[in-house]
UniProtKB/TrEMBL annotation:
Residues annotated as domain AB hydrolase-1: 50-271
Record's signal peptide: 1-24
Species of provenance: Kitasatospora herbaricolor
Protein name: Alpha/beta hydrolase
Keywords: Hydrolase, Signal
Amino acid sequence: MAGQSINRRRLSSMAVWAAATAFAVGTTVAGGTASATAPAAGTAGARPTIVLAHGAFADASSWNAVIKRLQADGYPVVAPADPLRGPASDAAALRSVTDHIPGPKILVGHSYGGSVISAAGADDPRVKALVYVAAFLPAPGETALELTGRFPGSTLGSALDPVTYPSPDGSSSTDLYIRADAFRHQFAADVPAGQAALMAATQRPIAQRALEEPATVAAWQQKPSWDIVTTEDLNIPKAAQLFMAHRADAHVTEVAASHSVAVSRPGVVVRVIEEAARATR
């Protein structure tokens, strides 16, 4: 019987690893394959799996310092790549991963990743909490672009480098990058220059239409939420972040940091994630 139980756990872990890998080929997960320690479904008091969704102009490696600390504290972690094509399709991609993770989960979204977890976490009873990190918490009908422009302070527009490319149907689409010469100031002012240069070189673009696509559901209306508000953010103004956080009745932590707070202040991010995990166990 013991051997059968071990085999079942191994099969469950392999399924989670395969699902995450299929969605996030090339994703950097510091310290090994986090999903290998995912708890069995229904285990009382099991630590939730932490699912990290990055935002625009970043990739999953932006979570590396956070992942290392969470794993050291015994949390299973999955950090899949976000396609950055639109909230609905990106949420469906994330949900394809989370549906294969047994047991309770905490969804964490940075920046545009907040829009993604707000959709992906809805109507999933195994998602116990949402953690927003310098992120969007759109209500149904709202867009990321609208929320950014509702309050003064964002300088993102002037730092963007749009790239137009043909779509298979013959139409054209636009991807948005941050210019390399503007990246550190705009996105990661409190990150060492060398590291910020690497982040600029490896940034993933977001489809312009993704920032213009209205939300259709808001998981924060259903589940407890935590929000890290970055007071020196040039992408999403502090006032916009506070408006969304207070509307969601989220547990708010303000930190004097740039938009790249998971890179510059990973300890703060981990503390808030673990607070959410403990509160919902």
